[in-house]
Amino acid sequence: MxxxxxxxxxxxxxxxxxxxxxxxxxxxxLELTRNINCLPKELVAVIEKxxxxxxxxLKVINSAYYSLPSKITSVGQSVVxxxxxxxxxxxxxFAAVGILPRMNAAGFDVQRxxxxxxxxxxxxxxLATQFAKGEADSxxxxxxxxxxxxxxxxxxxxxxxxxxxxxxHSAEHSVPLHEAEKTVIGVDHxxxxxxxxxxxxxxxxxxxxxxxxxxxxxxxxVMMDCLRVADQVVRLREIGDSGNPWRATxxxxxxxxxxxxxxxxxxxxxxxxxxxxxxxxxxxxGKEE
Length: 289
Prior knowledge:
- By secondary structure, this protein is mainly α.
- It is built from 17 helices and no strands.
- The chain has a domain at 21-98.
């Protein structure tokens, strides 16, 4: 923050403050789950007071993705089957999707952005499960993928002219969008996304991951590796659009963990069709009132 001009710091602070807050129920879920001794019944009581959130959670839990042996009819059953962290992350995901703007003056395609982000989340979760089991919570990796680019939404909403210029600069000069943002705006979307995540009282490790996912000097972590490489795989496959197309000159973001051949890694992951299908279903449920 110290490198920013006072004017830019003020503009970013105002933009972050103008973003909608999460529903009170989700804020309370975050508060409860920060306590490692959180009781499942406390979480259930909060979610059940929010009928919209309850319906969304049950709809997704009973989808093909989880393939549970029998239909789940209550939040209490959901916690038993999937655990506190999964239910927390579902609530967070729905809240994030629900506050996305429908339109913006920057011309940023929010629907394609959402598809990109959801699929990055799904691939990050699969990478954690398939290649880093026990090293990181796969649900946390999913949330990191879903929210890593949320700073772009802040830019598109409240610094629309500057963000439009950054998108143009990135395309015309063939530079990554985060570099164009630094040139045009003065900071990248990672920092702004982290400011928003901090305001939303997200865990510190998630805030740090959002802030540093484009910082090559950042302390590496399993979550960061899974996020960065998931983003590369999804951009390589051209699923959705977050304003930053795949460039053939990119090196694998976590070669020590996943190897230096993105195409080979994508082949190991296999078809992304199911992840895309689940993402589209999640997006639809998340936008339902």
